[in-house]
Amino acid sequence: VNETIVGLDADTQRTLELIGLFVFALSGALLAVRKSYDVVGMAVLAFTTACGGGIVRDVILGDTPPIAFRDLAYLLIPLAATIAVFVGHRAISTHLLGIGAVFDAAGLGLFCVTGTVKALEFGVRPAPAVTLGVITAAGGGVLRDVLAQESPAMFRADSVLFSIPAAVGAALVALAWKGDWYSGFVGGGAALGVFLLRVSAIQFDWHAPRPRP
Amino acid sequence: VNETIVGLDADTQRTLELIGLFVFALSGALLAVRKSYDVVGMAVLAFTTACGGGIVRDVILGDTPPIAFRDLAYLLIPLAATIAVFVGHRAISTHLLGIGAVFDAAGLGLFCVTGTVKALEFGVRPAPAVTLGVITAAGGGVLRDVLAQESPAMFRADSVLFSIPAAVGAALVALAWKGDWYSGFVGGGAALGVFLLRVSAIQFDWHAPRPRP
Amino acid sequence: VNETIVGLDADTQRTLELIGLFVFALSGALLAVRKSYDVVGMAVLAFTTACGGGIVRDVILGDTPPIAFRDLAYLLIPLAATIAVFVGHRAISTHLLGIGAVFDAAGLGLFCVTGTVKALEFGVRPAPAVTLGVITAAGGGVLRDVLAQESPAMFRADSVLFSIPAAVGAALVALAWKGDWYSGFVGGGAALGVFLLRVSAIQFDWHAPRPRP
Questions:
Q1: Nearest alpha-carbon partner for B162 in B118, B95, B101
Q2: Which stretches of chain C sit within 8 Å of chain A by CB?
């Protein structure tokens, strides 16, 4: 069988990626609702949250136009999320903390692994490839918060771990790549580890350390 | 005659573009005055508002350095706008709502058409080309607001239609391009349509829909 | 002897650049502490402040991946600054105004010259090369402030001259390059001039002009 870089068949990986994009886009559109933006603000924040991290990664790698401007799904899914939130934002807000957070964590795991591998394939060295993996997974959320005049969630001391699980998973991928023992099994394990770390962080309220005031 | 992509002769299009850049730059420099910035803040906001959208488009297309760093007019016009606002911001503020809004709408129409066509020429598919057309015309204003710590005007529910007219015009261009019936007449018509929609939106206070709270 | 573009030997220039990066990174990490961010926010702001200007320059020039993703020092130095600030931010805050401001000014001088020369070497014309030189030296600080929801320091009327000295030095470099009389002596003199202008601006409280309210 032809397995992907995270050890899944291509259709399964694609499905997971699209779900991840959709959940990221939902969080952008919901923030726009909380800020009382109109439908334009919703669509821009949905697209930025879902695709911003990958766009920054591709621009930095020089892989232009970025995948978000070549693959129509990257445009249509944020539009679908915008419509869903426009119609049913109250229902979505209520339920997002549950099932949404699970898919959000899955997206985090998947995108940090695929982003790191893409950077390594482009010849970037392991340490900056880890940075690009984290940017892929977490950059869209930072851009969303900056556009919406919010303090970036992942910087705040009261936020539960988000980018540190991604950095751990990306580091494992880079280490395996450099040591020549990377496989779909390793990639899938790294994505799964990121997912479990993130879900545990939410469950047990884990925070990144902060300096003493 | 050699007509341009919007059906004008090259000199007329160039003149309109430079006026559009100047009016965009004025809005950046005027915001800097309202924020009590110094002349550096004025110049940065003027340049960002006028050129930011096109820079983002060119970086995404991989057409580097972007046109704003090759054509001196893209640097000199924001400087001229900065000087004009520095000397006469009271007079300009008072009169901008009238004649300025007209040229601003003309810039919106022109830049969304030229941005969309450029993206299509670079092989981008119709839907993302529309996105890049809107980014060309509206992206500078978003960057201006983010740099100046303002909620982006085009996201706010109380703002009159701005990016939706641009999206409509860009979609018409992309449709014509894909259907192989694009001509200067179509491009010029799309730009004119965007202009009229925008001016009508200001006149009749049209807003984008927003979700029920 | 092989002298660099600022008339120093390669090791001396490298040392000065790394010190400049470290001091820029310190200012990012210290801002994160003032904003009560966690260690993730500190690391992101340290990296952005130190490397953001050069990343924007390289993306605009099409020199991808940017140097910050090829040279490991650009990643490790912000991490070192993050650890230093995490452990000793009180001591560093107290002493930064003195010795830190001197190295910050040295970084400003060095990076605006190297950034301008790099742009000229990539075939950019003198005026936009000056812009790119200033972006190299000052862009990281603007990105830091935008990410941290602060009004960009260099826009504010109460800030002492920062980007104007950089623009003067970059203009001298571009003039010499165009006139074919550029040498390491000129580059070093420009960097030194920027340094002295900046230090004088701090010492004598020089501000950029602002329009009458």
A1: B101
A2: 32-33, 35-42, 44-45, 47, 55, 59, 62, 64-66, 68-70, 72, 75-76, 85-87, 89, 146-149
